[in-house]
Queue: 4 jobs
Job 1
Amino acid sequence: MFILSLNAYHGDASAAIFKNGELIAATEEERICRVKHWAGLPVEAAWFCLQEAGISLEEVDFITVSRDPKAKFLEKIIYALKSGTAFGALRSRAANSLKIRSITQDLAAALNNSKSSKSPLNLTKSPATRFIEHHRSHLASAFFVSPFEEAALLSVDGFGDFSSTMRAVGRGNRIEVLDSVSYPHSLGVFYTAFTQYLGFPHYGDEYKVMGLAPYGKPSLVEQVRETIFLKNNGLFQLNPRYFRHFREGVNMSWEGGAPHIEPLFSSEFVKKFGPARQKDEPLDDHHRDLAASVQRVCEEVIFQLADDLQRRTGLKHLCLAGGVAQNSVANGKIVQNTAFERLFVPPAGHDAGTAVGAGLFFYHQMLGNPRSPFRHQAYTGVQFSNEQIEAYLHSRNIAFERLDDAQLFDTVTARLLDGGVVGWFQGRAEFGPRALGNRSILADPRRADAKDLLNAKIKRRESFRPFAPSILKEFAAEYFEQDDSVPFMEKVFLIKPDKRPLIPAVTHVDGTGRLQTVEQQDNPRYHALIHRFFEKTGVPILLNTSFNENEPIVNTPEHALECFLRTKMDMLVLENWVVRR
């Protein structure tokens, strides 16, 4: 049985394909079309998945979509009538629902017009389409790939199918929903509104507020708490005075594929916190303190949601998904601030991951099939052989050399020790927002100037944003206050005080690091590279940041080479091929 699963007509559009419940491939549309957070129908991602499975669309048994236009339908109508939601917003939502309902036909037509598809598609057998509610897709994307047979489940994001939060219990191949928070109340909207107010207007900019927060003091917590209320039932609600969407709806567009959300904060919000910062305006102490306060309040809400869920269920394991699950700072504190003992966050906890979740929910929950044994599944994208890469480099008249693995690890680590910045491209591309050693830019974490070097040579990004440490799993307890498996760079932990001077390039201003623990079984070549660096330096860590330059993470050798050529990167590694300046 083949299931093609889609996150479509939504930010971070993506596709995944399963054969008898086993994930064959998954990727985000942005990696192929090169538009960040691309929204719409993921045509190229779907085509890639079909190619990886070796089938045509006609051979797909089911298409699952991580949206359900019927979800909370009556609630939607009642809310629209009570709130007097603008006609334009209602019309936009209705048009979006119609797109979802015709998705199989739209995909077939788009594949025919795609540059990737070489032969015309005459769809004589149409796959059956199943619509899976957005937050159930999030929950499934975490629980059904987790190591837990039984766990509490929490999904928190902006909005999807008229919900922003959902809590549940997972047992075996079943998910039982306990409760939810309905639109317009949303922790994601809360965080996005402050993100926009602080001068970060782009879709997905919330991580910038998270990175800025440690530079401020949470001196505005009481004022921020007036915008969101904790409830006795463990849930929360927004104060409608401070958010425009209660009356006007969420005005979202994706012209050219790039999603855009109009400002969510109201005039009362501006009266309370002062004039909004413009994106080119300097950051001052007020902005930094507000970021710290917003992060603190966001964490309070997450901890209450989780702790109340633990008390209700008595379970010790938590699976977390949704856009707010990308808040790795909060994730790193959940076990310490709740009664949960273990936390699992998938590699794509954001909306792209719902493509995986919708397929798994249908296969396990609706069809009753058993779960597969646990294994890490982050490397599900495209890969290229040494022969393919060699042919491409020849076509570009680029000077290069081939090294075996032992020579390669020596050469790369030597360049890093000499202050070099290396583009590292190998294996299958990662699924999710983090580079995990297959599409990464690497540097020496011991260099105090590494952050400035990276921003000068490549990234050109805000100085307050940290870079991540990839650490050999066996050394995590030696360097970090918490000993945990963090394979997807999904948690921020305190670095031990005596280790911070050793790795200044990956130590944030508050003494933390967003770590990735690397195990040999998950990524043997990346593990071997870090181990070679450890043999030379005594430090089992590399600075790892995503291989890109203000664009989606590179996907192909062409993307990697173009990024190398237009920046001041010192070395490019494409599998076993090395390109030098």
Note: The chain has three domains: 2-135, 146-345, 386-580.
Job 2
Amino acid sequence: MLVLAMLLAAGGCASKNIALRSVPKSPLIEQLDLASFSGPKPSRRTTQLLRVYNLGDDNLTGDLRPLLGKLQAINDGEPSADIVYAMSELAFLGGKKAERYDKQAALDLYGASVLHAYDYLFDRRYYATRNPYDPQYRSACDLYNGALESALRIVCAEKALAPGTIMTISTASGTWDVTCVLPGGQGTWRPEDFERFEFVSDYEVTGLKNLYLTHGLGVPLIAIRRRGPDEPPAAKYYPPGMSFPVTAFLRPVGKIDPRTGRLGERNQCVLELYDPLTTNETLVAGRRVPLECDLTTPLAYFLSRPELENLATVGLLWPEALLALRPDRPEPIMGLYMAQPYEPGKIPVLMVHGLWSSPMTWMEMFNDLRSQPEIRRRYQFWFYLYPTGQPFWLIAAQLRHDLARVREELDPHRREPAFDRMVLVGHSMGGLVSRLQTLSSGDDYWRLVGRKPLGSIKADPKIREQLAETFYFRPNPSIRRVVSIATPHRGSTFSNQTTQWLLGKLIHLPQKIINSQQKLFRENQGVFAGDSLLRIDTSIDSLAPETPIFPVMLASRRLPWVKYHNIVGVMPDQPWWLLNLIGEGDGVVPRDSAQLDDAVSQITVPADHSTIHAHPAAVLEVRRILLEHLAELDGRSAAGIARRTPAIMRRQ
């Protein structure tokens, strides 16, 4: 039981998912009694307005379009914010009624509701009679959002929502052509990237602690990416089923045809699909209008994919499974993944997970970091998935290869300066993999492997090449900072005879690697000593404190422009038996091992090993480091950054 408890503490990540709501979330449910037996029904103010204009209750039965026509005629002669608001509310209620028997009529009414709410909020005719401090103002915003969402549900049910499509709605004010567009300069998505849409209001996040919303106008959507034949080079790094946030905003443009920009014969609207990672506001009549955005729910939607749940265990116990090809393209499952499309000019932050883990373990921190406008404006986040059952120096060699390849594919002419400002963030064993990207080997690492020079080893050319790539390496000049979190820089007493034996029985190394290794030993008798790194087969063995690579790593020559930051975990109320077994630390890595002498910053976080990188103090420290990185690149002072950040984030 003790061993199992230690193994569970060492890694893995909780499932991140979302729950489907029984009823979509909407402030209009209570406002208009949408869920009651007596509803839906108009608000008291709308009922009063109808009474003032002698439009009694008999006008509220059946089809509401005749009533809307009467109100339109009254408003044409006597423009009033109260009237146009009532029209928006009644059109919405009429849409709810019509949904049961006539989808097109419902679409027309919902469209009318959106347009009337838009007029209430932005038409200059109503500035004198509209009070922005009146609760009706917020209700008009709710009507705009709710009616637009209801209209989009009808459109999406017919799979007719896509950039470039045109739909028509008829209202009391005339017929409108609605064109779906991607506003210029908004994000990196192309029209052909949209497979389908889900609605944020249908889901409740249950697996991420923090929900990041921006309140305003528009409908937050979850867009699911479509794979196509003509994809950009970076698409190979996009995960299958990638989903991303979108906000839909409907804007009337009068008689201007949005396709030609010229005067047309019919009323025109544009349905704009915004990327909230790029912008959270739009301009209307010269005013900045915040968009309703949700960054977290689309992320949780993607994380709820069932195939993501077992990546950590598969990567530990069956490393060969991650070397197989992805089902959607001829690329290995292991490797580099991008959470959003590659954007030139944005600095890559590569997050490297630890033992018995996967990129899913970073989602709490990723969700928090991405919520900061400055960070999402200047950075793009990448993730590395690798088989954690293998020794970490083998993973480091593969990462060196993968980083060189992504640079060659996305920036072959070395014209992108953001590539040379990269930041690596590694948790646990991932911190060791990350640090090895910045070190120079010389002959020091090969001396830990064999007693003869590599050139004299009897081996197939491919095996010799792999040995050279693993034990002879240069630092990656693109990396400027490395953040290590709960990293065993001197090994971990968690790796002991018991855990090594147990995981040695459970981990199934690729047979091809085992056969190649045995052949190498047979053909080179006496070259590889018993403590050779080549005789260490699994990751848990590689993390033993007596492994000779640790002092070599700590003494390796480092580039002067690379800065190291370190976050150490100390488990609060550590049980006495764990304290005696491992010593003070995070329950897996002793505090003395987690310390890093050459770090320019180092903090201690009261957390255990498996949760430290989701702890608010750790997230704030990584945020501080990323902002400091930007300040130095921009020539700003660190004091200026400190003044702009909360005191809790400042280094003590």
Note: The CA atoms of residues 176 and 267 lie 5 Å apart.
Job 3
Amino acid sequence: MRTADYRQVNITGGFWKALQDKVATVSLYNVYEQFKETGRFDAVKCIRNDERKPHIFWDSDVAKWLESAAYVLAKRKDERLTALVKEAVADICANQLPCGYFNSYFQVYEPENIFKKRTEHELYCAGHLIEAAVALYEAGVDEALYRAMLRYADYIYERFYEKKDAGFYTCGHPEIELALVRLADCSGEKKYLTLAVYFLEERGKHGEETYDFTYPVYHLDRCPVREMREAEGHAVRALYLYIAVADAAQRLQDAQLAETARRLFADIVNKKMYVTGGVGSSFHGETFTFPYDLPNIFAYGETCAGIALALFCDRLAKLEPRAEYHAVFERVLYNNVLAGMSADGKGFFYVNPLEMHAALYDYNEGLRTKLYCPLPERVEVFDCSCCPPNLTRFLSEIGNYLYGEEDGTVYVEQYVTSEAELCGVKLCVQSDMPYAGAVRIRTAGSGALKLRVPAWSGGIAMKVNGQAAKADVAEGYIGLAVSGDTEIELTFAMQPRFVYANKSVWYDAGRKAVEYGPFVLCAESCDNGADLSAVRIPSLDGAKQTEGSFFTLEVPAQRLQTENGLYAYAPPVPQPFLLKLIPYFCWANRGKGDMQVWWL
């Protein structure tokens, strides 16, 4: 399936227009200021400063910011933003080595070790610079970085594929692979796809360098790619690799690689994914661990890993249009991914726990040797600040993930207020999602449509040109033909529902979470008081929307009261009260406190 490019899609209103406006006017500039203050933009000037030595992956932070700016500038004029982009690009191009190499750390501080240290993110940074260059070029914002990165990609091809004289075979942190596929698509130069596939095929065959604190699984080297059976290792690295596997499968029509991608997806969503769509459950190595290991308060669920899972879903949908892929995309998008940014657009989460106890965090802060404990509030920058620019670029290009076309049929995958034209059919979508299930689609032209039924839908009502019509659903899509000017009204029934964890998820056995439409809901102590872990929700009868700082669902619940002693022989007494639930992505916007997703 070919998906519509964000440049073909205009987001015209609703939830996503407001969010993209915030990213363009607040988040992007705030990330820039934080990166400027911490030295990231100065680093690409390649001036040695031993008192402010750049980190090995700062180039990738700058690159993701540039890519974000490309998507914003493709849709709106902004002279200040354009000037900032041009300045950063000029610095990179001016300091590129004659051979084409660019890395602000290695060429300044360790030129003798260029392409000798596998673990140190050289090719990872190169991949993000390539992605930024393609985005700026395709958006019509800048061509200089694109030309520079073609030279860099040629140099990587020469060293790794032709001469094979680098100190390693494959990148410790995958990213270059998917970036090379993207460069091949843009340039039409097949050698970049050849190099991407070479990096995939060489992985797991050479016993390469890894970190002292971990083992080959971390770097995805336990076996060749085609033999991979389960998701393991560093979650972001793994998913970036899996994206490239799916990309290569599609470009080469390689059935074995396609089956590998499907197998890895199934392992993730059936055994290793949080109800919020978060993945990578362990702080130690930011890794996938083993089936059903999904702790709540010590959950990792890195924002970048959530974005990577969404991108993997998109690539799988390009291999074959299955509603399941976009159902998972929707889950991770509206929960784990959106939770990564604060309501004001300035703060970010690196990790996304499903439970928070402020007292535990405060205690941990007082320890000389700290335990791993997620932050209770978002911050504006991290030492490792990969997530903020990853969010700004992903949210700014969300138009890439709404529509597709295959064999003359237009697929509507995500219901976002927007306009697009595919297969000769003009579409104008008005959507109340994610807060309500009403959608109106106006079309002009003739063709076939497939409209995805959200996995959470409790029923469908449909009208075509004002007349009630039967929604013929097959494999998760409503199929219908349109001719001339047509108006389709859809109402997907949206009501709260319980979701139960598999019995093997021992943290949540016997508990349930509450979903409403695409949202997983949570409760905070600022609305409900203390002792959230003692709350029981007998049923969802009587649940109703109410006023609050965010979308709020009020649910009849019980708080289990016990005697004052530490232990007692009398059973707890249920005390009725109204529990206020909000979307998970909204938590931690009103000060530090407790939060919970799973209930008795």
Note: The mean pLDDT is 97.
Job 4
Amino acid sequence: MNDFILTAPKLTKERLFEILNKRFEQDEIKKLSDLKDPFVFKDMQKAIDRIEKAINSKEKITLVGDYDVDGVVSSVIVKEFFEYINYPLEIIIPNRFSDGYGINSTILDKIDASVIITVDNGISAIEPALECKKKGIDLIITDHHTCPDILPDCFAIINPKQKDCGFDFGDICGAVVAWYLVAGLKKKLNVEFDMKNSLDLLAIATISDAVPLVSANRTIVKAGLKALENSKRPSVEAFRQKLKKEKFTSEDVGFAIAPKLNAAGRMNSAFEAYEFLMSKNINEATKWLDYLWNLNIQRKEIELQITNYAKNIVDKDDNIIVVWGDEWHEGVIGIVASRLVDLFNLPAIVFSVNEERAKGSARSIGSVDIYALIKEHQDMLINFGGHKQAAGLSIKKEELAKFKKSINESAKKLDKKEFIAASEIIGEMDFDALDCECYDILEQFEPYGICNPKPLFLARDASVVDSRKVGSGKNHIKLVLKSKNECKNAMAFFSDHEILKGQNISFAFALVKNEFRNEINFEFMIKKFF
């Protein structure tokens, strides 16, 4: 056991409430009415005025999205507003494999418009911005990724991470930036469009993009999860029927909904996820969801194959994992990087090499700023972009070995504490205290996610009353555990430990509510054995 486990504090329900409440003492935005006015964003007024002029002059406007959930949702949010005002808006969502990322020369060749709006991309588009200027196109960039030292020379940039932006909470996702753009248009055009209609999608995008669930994000997601319960959107209804759920938690969104939406962009074309979210009836939505579901199954199979290979070529002495393979599926290398982070507790960059060029996806751990690490070596790269926890990059094949060595030298200089993920274990509670009242306290601080992790509790030396392997592949463990004469049921959705009846075990777990035939029981979801 590590030092924290040995010294984990004993908790009461009162102390549990105090610890969780402290996470939000500094939050200034606690309800939707606290959200900032859209025009505090730098360039918002300029962008809105230009779009209004384009509408009044009947100019062609094209929107360029991105192929992840955030980019797809951003595209839907803006498109739905333009449908409401009955104005045509061309939507282009780049294909990861044939178009590459974001607005670029390939995408510009497909566009014949006087105004281009980007959502969830564009902040690093230096060359495309110059190309737009030469063609007389007014480029409006809306993005949330970290700003490079030199910004694109374009008509307007709306990004909360700009140094002189008046929106002082920079960690929102691209869909929220797009939503603010719509709020600005609504105000300028003086229409009755209901901004709350997008809250269900905003919750999905915010959770999917792994931004901190505090301040504006927490408020939006909390309202958005509630909106998901009542959403009349056919795509949401299709998820309700498929998952057999009326109410969605942040975990449902992160682990059940987002992967299906992401599967389209990872395996084929993200426009398919866009079409699904834009479905006009339940039959159309159900067909799309069945298709996305099967795509996600294929994605899992490919991801497992590459992960199993990649983990065996990791240099165990490295401070940051850098691995590559010929024609590894570009759509899954980001997930493979995440798997390697979990396995080795190190940041990871995974490259897919295609002929002379390699495209990479990076994931971080703890407080390591992966974007800053990569930026130190930008002279070796073709391009890169992202934020503190995740980034994308491309490099010539011949530079890979040099890059790996160089970035590891940089990682050696970091404080070892930066590589330690913050423990989500908040303390130890007696089994009899883990009841309905305790669960009610936990529910008050939903939604859980980045910067507001779901609390894990420590159980020390619990006696195993019963243990058996379950599941089709016998890859789960079902337990009955006893401590101080109180018994609890528990599940571990992994089976790499042999847990025997009669032994004493220590473990980290989340408290879950199990409702069956009108009977409520509180059980343990085991995350780790010690």
Note: The chain has three domains: 3-23+422-529, 32-290, 311-419.
